[in-house]
Amino acid sequence: MSYTLTAKSQVTLPKPIRDHLKVAPGDAVEFRIVADGTVRVQPAKAKRGGADQPSAALLAKYRKLQGVGGHAGSSTDELMSLLRGYDEDATDPGFAPHRPGK
Questions:
Q1: Sorting pLDDT into bands at 50, 70 and 90, what band is 49?
Q2: Percent of the chain that is helix, strand, coil (3-state, to 5)
Q3: How much is the pTM?
């Protein structure tokens, strides 16, 4: 098989190779140069603490929410405030809690 690079030096992995590697759009692959000069393409392994891993702060927010779905007394606004972290940056208008009529 021979494929031509695009103007941005990109090439599409052919379907039989994607199927063999079990990768799909959005998945990461690694390219490695082997000692004999060939190039190996393989699925990328998720690295601990990398972009594929949730941050400690995000996990803490999630843990706070576990089990509160049916908790009486928590309004939707209270749950969304907890989830979105409105209290973390009160000066940012994007984090300001919604106040009807204002």
A1: very low
A2: 30, 10, 60
A3: 0.42
d(CA 59, CA 52): 13
Number of Cα atoms under 13 Å in the Cβ half of residue 9: 0
CATH of 10-46, one of 3.40.50.360, 2.10.260.10, 2.40.50.140, 3.40.50.300: 2.10.260.10
Look up residue 54 and give its two tokens.
């949730």
Rounded to whole angstroms, the Cα distance separating 81 from 76 reads 8
**Partner residues linked to 30 by β-bridges:** 42
**If you search the block for the tokens 């082997």, which residue do you land on?**
34
